[in-house]
């Protein structure tokens, strides 16, 4: 069965996010009442799997192996059947 | 084996740069260096036919996911056993800029407890953000363990350029002090950003061009045979590569980066 996984990679709390800070500065310059910006990276992955739990396990492995660096990144995974 | 028979593998993939300059630098220092595509090593040649592995600068695989991450994982997935043996036999490995990012992402640096399945450090987005290409000063602080810098006197300030967007060396939050202690204990610190007179940058931009923790520009593994550094020594090999060489009135042919290549070549000569 085909599953779709949404993977969100974001910096761990406390790690500085220069890209977010620069974006926040720009938005403030454009007069938006922005307090802060944190930048995330999203991946939408379509994969074949026998079950949802197996799909989740495979995607978690992808995060550990490539998509996230545990030194600075956290990740969140949402898996559902692909439409 | 004679020095002339030792082989330096300068590995490349799509997005690699300065591989030709790096080969030139090794050859001028007296070693036999070849540029080898990663797929050649996977399909035809063996990494173990070489005595030194160099991962040059650039933007491998577009630096997608994170700088150096894709190449690092490919390296371990396709050549993991050869890399493991290379490390066990203490054959030298040099990672320059993107190469340093690859070594960290591959778990080959800082190598506190053998090859780590996950990165033990990271090279994060520069602070201030953006691509930074400039000449920087580095203080050589290694006490003699690193075979790539043994010809550089301790505390000597060298001038080598950086060119990167993700060079902020860091450890995980709350782990910095413990990891720094290990680096110091194992003599793994090699270069720190400083001003022309040798005063450490203390994180101040642009002396520290990327906000790296403890002004770290380059580290080696505990054996001293693996070096990763953000600056490009091959871009500081000849004096005429320096932006101000005509105004200096110096007739020197070579510049500071040559010391790194000379060091490893001399080591190879002693080993053979």
What's the order of the H and E elements of chain A?
EHEHE
Give the CATH topology of chain A: Mth169, Chain: A
Radius of gyration of chain A: 16 Å
> How large a portion of the residues of chain A is in β-strands, by DSSP E?
25-35%
Order of helices and strands of chain B: EHEHEHEHEEEEHEEEHH
List keywords for this structure.
heterodimer, A: 83 residues, alpha+beta, Mth169, Chain: A, 3-stranded antiparallel beta sheet, 3 strands, 34% strand, B: 272 residues, alpha/beta, Rossmann fold, 9-stranded mixed beta sheet, two-stranded antiparallel sheet, 7 helices, 21% strand
Could you give a short description of this structure?
The complex is a heterodimer of chains A (83) and B (272). Chain A is α+β, with helices and mostly antiparallel strands. Chain A is 34% helix and 34% strand.
Helix and strand arrangement:
The complex is a heterodimer of chains A (83) and B (272).
Chain A: E1 2-11, H1 18-29, E2 40-48, H2 52-67, E3 73-81
Antiparallel strand pairs in A: 1-2, 1-3
Chain B: E1 7-12, H1 19-28, E2 32-37, H2 38-43, E3 52-55, H3 69-88, E4 93-96, H4 98-105, E5 122-124, E6 132-140, E7 157-164, E8 168-170, H5 176-185, E9 189-194, E10 216-220, E11 226-229, H6 245-248, H7 258-271
Helix pairs in contact in B: 3-4
Please explain how this structure is put together.
The complex is a heterodimer of chains A (83) and B (272). In chain A, strands 2-1-3 form a 3-stranded antiparallel β-sheet, covered by helices on one side. With 83 residues, chain A is of the alpha+beta class. Chain A starts with a strand and ends with a strand. Chain A has helices at residues 18-29, 52-67; strands at 2-11, 40-48, 73-81. Chain A has one domain: Mth169, Chain: A, CATH 3.30.1280. Chain A has 2 helices and 3 strands; from the N terminus they run βαβαβ. The longest helix of chain A has 16 residues, at 52-67. Chain B has 272 residues and is an alpha/beta fold. Chain B has a single domain, classed as Rossmann fold (3-Layer(aba) Sandwich). Chain B is 26% helix and 21% strand. Chain B is built from 7 helices and 11 strands. Chain B has helices at 19-28, 38-43, 69-88, 98-105, 176-185, 245-248, 258-271, and strands at residues 7-12, 32-37, 52-55, 93-96, 122-124, 132-140, 157-164, 168-170, 189-194, 216-220, 226-229. Chain B has a 9-stranded mixed β-sheet, with helices on both faces. A two-stranded antiparallel sheet of chain B has the order 5-8. In chain B, strand 1 (7-12), helix 1 (19-28) and strand 2 (32-37) form a beta-alpha-beta unit. In chain B, helix 3 (69-88) crosses helix 4 (98-105). The mean pLDDT of chain B is 95. Chains A and B meet through helix 1 and helix 2 of A and helix 3 of B.
């Amino acid at each position: 069965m085909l599953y779709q996984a949404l993977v969100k990679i974001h910096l761990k709390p406390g790690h500085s996010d220069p890209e977010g800070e620069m974006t926040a500065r720009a938005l403030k310059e454009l007069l938006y009442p922005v307090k802060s910006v944190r930048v995330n990276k999203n991946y939408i992955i379509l994969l074949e799997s026998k079950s949802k739990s197996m799909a989740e396990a495979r995607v978690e492995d992808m995060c550990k192996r490539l998509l996230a660096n545990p030194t600075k990144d956290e990740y969140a995974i949402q898996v559902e059947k692909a439409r | 084996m004679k020095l002339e028979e030792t082989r330096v593998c300068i590995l490349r993939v799509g997005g690699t740069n300065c591989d030709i300059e790096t080969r030139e630098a090794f050859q001028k220092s007296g070693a036999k260096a070849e540029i080898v595509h990663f797929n050649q090593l996977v399909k035809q040649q063996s990494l173990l036919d070489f005595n030194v592995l160099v991962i040059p600068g650039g933007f491998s695989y577009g630096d997608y996911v994170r700088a150096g991450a894709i190449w690092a994982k490919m390296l371990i997935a396709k050549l993991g056993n050869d890399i493991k043996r290379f490390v066990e036999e203490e054959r030298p490995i040099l990672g320059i800029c993107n190469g340093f990012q690859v070594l960290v992402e591959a778990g080959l640096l800082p190598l506190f407890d053998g090859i780590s399945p996950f990165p033990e450090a990271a090279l994060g987005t520069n602070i201030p953000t953006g691509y930074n290409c400039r000449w920087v000063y580095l203080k050589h602080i290694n006490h003699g363990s690193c075979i790539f810098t043994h010809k550089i006197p301790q505390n000597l300030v060298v001038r080598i350029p950086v060119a990167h967007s993700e060079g902020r060396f860091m450890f995980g939050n709350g782990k910095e002090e413990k990891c720094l202690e290990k680096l110091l204990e194992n003599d793994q610190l090699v270069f720190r950003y400083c001003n022309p007179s040798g005063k450490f940058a203390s994180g101040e931009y642009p002396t520290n061009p990327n906000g790296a923790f403890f002004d770290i520009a380059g580290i080696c593994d505990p054996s001293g045979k693996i070096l990763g550094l953000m600056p490009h020594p091959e871009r500081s090999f000849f004096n005429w590569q320096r932006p101000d060489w005509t105004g200096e009135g110096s007739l020197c042919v070579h510049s500071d980066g040559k010391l790194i290549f000379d060091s490893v070549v001399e080591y190879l000569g002693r080993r053979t």
